[in-house]
Design brief:
The protein has about 325 residues and is an alpha+beta fold. The protein is built from 7 helices and 17 strands. The strands form 6 sheets. A 4-stranded antiparallel sheet has the order 2-3-17-16, with helices on one face. The chain is elongated, with a radius of gyration of 23 Å.
Length: about 325
């Protein structure tokens, strides 16, 4: 059972109607950054572990609770450290306590990320030379990337791939034509459009840029990260236990494949099946006025406890 205890940044604190670190409970809602993502899950999982510890002799297998850090940076350092620890038992399955009462996340798109260095001849902005600078060439590349054709969703995986240019850095002052502009590219991948296809798309766009708008140095691509997409099939644990437990507690949920990546993608790369979310209702996740509905905690606790007992009890 995994729950992150680091949080997203506060953002514009003046936009909040209460302090981001409030911790107050108002009308049954816990207020503050991290209330939903995911301090509620950390408390729930610790409570379940403490409850079951006293009856461990009657159970089979093992239960570990990871209070994860370095999650919101995307580095997933806490999960990586656990998996790299030779003394830690390798999990047969993981339940991640992201919020959301009506869905059990059983999969997610993967990702391929890279930085692209676009070069040009630098010079004075007032000179008679008309060669495009690095920012102009980068803008041309952005158009090529965003106009690239991506496949749609297929029958086995319900979401299509998605390409986003997420950053652009270059230039200094007004009188200098920049010689370097760096782009960040995030491509959400699927089984039908994998990391190799994502990289090939970017390389084709770069080759077209360098052919149509030449520069003294070729454009370079530096891949940064690649995580596989994943989706647990019908009956696959631990999703089946969590869905069955919800039904047994009278909580109506549906399986969902998520668009954003999460620790489940990291675990999928390690061959470890994972659910990526079931928890309390929430508002303002990663935004302003984040809060979590504490009235949902008894039901959420009961579902997870029931699922764990099903997995650790007699076959």
């Amino acid at each position: 059972m995994d729950a992150c205890v680091d949080t997203a940044p506060y953002g514009d604190e003046t936009a909040w109607s209460f302090a981001p670190d409030s911790g107050e409970v108002v009308d049954g809602w816990l207020r503050g950054r991290g209330a939903a993502d995911s301090k509620h899950a950390a408390a729930t999982f610790c409570g379940i572990a403490a409850d079951l510890h006293g009856r461990a002799d009657a159970l089979h297998g093992g239960l570990a609770v990871l209070l994860d850090v370095d999650e919101h940076t995307g580095g997933f350092g806490g999960a990586r450290a656990y998996l790299a620890d030779p003394a830690a038992a390798r999990p047969a399955g993981v339940m991640i306590g992201y919020p959301g009462l009506d869905e059990v996340v059983v999969g997610g798109r993967g990702l391929w990320r890279a930085t692209i260095a676009v070069h040009a001849a630098s010079g004075h902005s007032g000179s008679r030379r008309s060669a495009p600078g690095a920012i102009s060439r980068a803008a041309h590349l952005v158009r090529l990337l965003e106009e690239a054709e991506l496949p749609g969703a297929d029958g086995e995986f319900p979401l299509p791939p998605k390409l986003t240019v997420t950053s652009c850095h270059g230039g200094q002052g007004f009188s200098v034509v920049p010689g370097l502009c760096e782009l960040g590219v995030d491509i959400r991948i699927t089984p039908a459009f994998d990391a190799r296809a994502a990289e090939e798309l970017v390389r084709e766009a770069v080759a077209e840029l360098d052919a149509k708008v030449p520069a003294p140095r070729p454009t370079t691509i530096t891949p940064l990260a690649s995580w596989p997409p994943y989706r647990l099939g019908s009956g696959r644990q631990p999703a089946a236990a969590l869905l069955d437990a919800a039904a047994g507690e009278g909580v109506v949920v549906r399986p969902k494949t998520a668009g954003p990546s999460n620790i489940g993608n990291l675990l999928a790369g390690e061959g470890i099946p994972a659910t990526g979310g079931f928890g309390v209702r929430y508002v303002g996740l990663h935004g302003v006025d984040e809060r979590a509905c504490l009235a949902d905690l008894p039901a959420v606790h009961a579902v997870y406890r029931r699922a764990v007992l099903a997995l650790l009890g007699p076959s």
